[in-house]
Every structure is written in C-alpha cells, then in structure tokens.
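Batch queue: ligand-bound targets. Current item pairs a single chain with fe (ii) ion. No template structures supplied; prediction is de novo from sequence plus SMILES. Inputs echoed for audit trail.
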Amino acid sequence: MGFWPTTEHWSVSIPLDTHHPRLEVLAARGVVALSDAPFAVPEHEYLDLHYMDWKSGGDTNFAPIATTDGELDCRGFWSAENEHPDKDAVFTVNASRCPTLRDYVSEVGANFGRVRIIKLEPQDRETALHSLHRDDNNRFNPPDSGWVVRSWVELTDNPDSYMLLMDSGPDGLPDPATEQRMPLHRGARFVVDTQRLWHVVVHHGDAPRYALITSFESGPALDAFITANQVRRFAG
Ligand SMILES: [Fe+2]
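Prediction returned. Tokens below.
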C-alpha cells in the first residue's frame, strides 16, 4: 500500500463538530453536484491572470480573484496579525480580467471569501494521495455564522480526472469505504464541505487542469443557489 495519512496529519486536528449553521443539502454526503455551468468561460479569463506559486493539493499555482484585502495573496485569511474568517472578500486586479467568473460569483448572492483559479499539474492517484487533506475553512468564523464551504467550476475538460472525497473514520483518518468521485469535465460544478471531507484531485492527462474555487458562507442565499442548480436524483 502506498502513502496514507496518519493521526499526525495536520488535518486531523481541524474541527468537525461545531455549532455553525449548516446546509441540510450537504448533510448526507458533504457534497452536492450542480448542473453543468450554463455559460462558456473564454480561455483568456483564466489563462491571462496573475498566477502565484502556491502549493496546495499537488503541483499547483493559484490566481487570486478575491482576497481578504484585494491584494494578490494566496495565504489563508488568518495570520498572527489579522484574524479574518474566509468571507467578506474583496476583488483583486485579476477580477477585471475574468468578468464572467467575477459576475458568476457575485450573482450567487452569498457572502464569499477567497476566490481563485487553481492550476493543477497532472498527478496520478498515488501521487495525489500525498496531498489528501481537509480544509480549515471556518477558523475565526463566529459559531453563529454560516459554515464556510467551497464551490468549484471546472474550466478545462478533464473527463478522465476526478476529485476524490472521503469522510473521516472513527480514527479521524479518511475512510476508504466512503469514497466519492466528482467528475471534472468542462463546466462541471459542485459544492463541497471541504472541512468535513478529505479531498484531492487525481488528474490524468498531459496538461494542467484549471478550475474556479470559491469559499461561500452557508445561509439562505447559498441554499437557494444550490436548490436552483442542483442535479436532481429521483429515487426509483
Ligand atoms: Fe483543500
């Protein structure tokens, strides 16, 4: 067996159970698939941005579209000097270069935190497992505020790649029996509770995968957006 996280992994100490209000739609699986994006995103809206060398989830670069103060910065919102939850973000200079994406995020109507494009180099499953992790999305988020989750829009077409998701087992480590896979074809959209689910992308192919990642605060606006765009699964 290859790499697998141990109880020493930094994700294990990230809280799972808190009093933050959460969305019922994410309760069962921690993820909800949306219909494919009903718009096309011109290549220049994600290729011609300022990218920064920032490693998270593999060999990655990020183009910040909204940050805590509007500056191009890939760090989390929190620091010793500035304890800021991942919401109330301000658009960066990149936002004016990607109006389709900027307007898409704005029109959800929910409070958003970091908005960024991820550029991920190919990595097979064994390599990707080294980066399997949970996010610290709700650090400094007051417990009466909505639980911060993340939304994806896939910008490049990678039908052979997938986001691997797992719940934690009793030991706090990812439980393989709970594996779910989200497809990453162009236009694929989904919302993930990335503080709850361990996640990483297995990216087959020979070119980088680009995707829009947005932190959203759970609440009536995000709930309405998901309801309006959710892929319906009928029993029977
Ligand atoms: Fe993450």
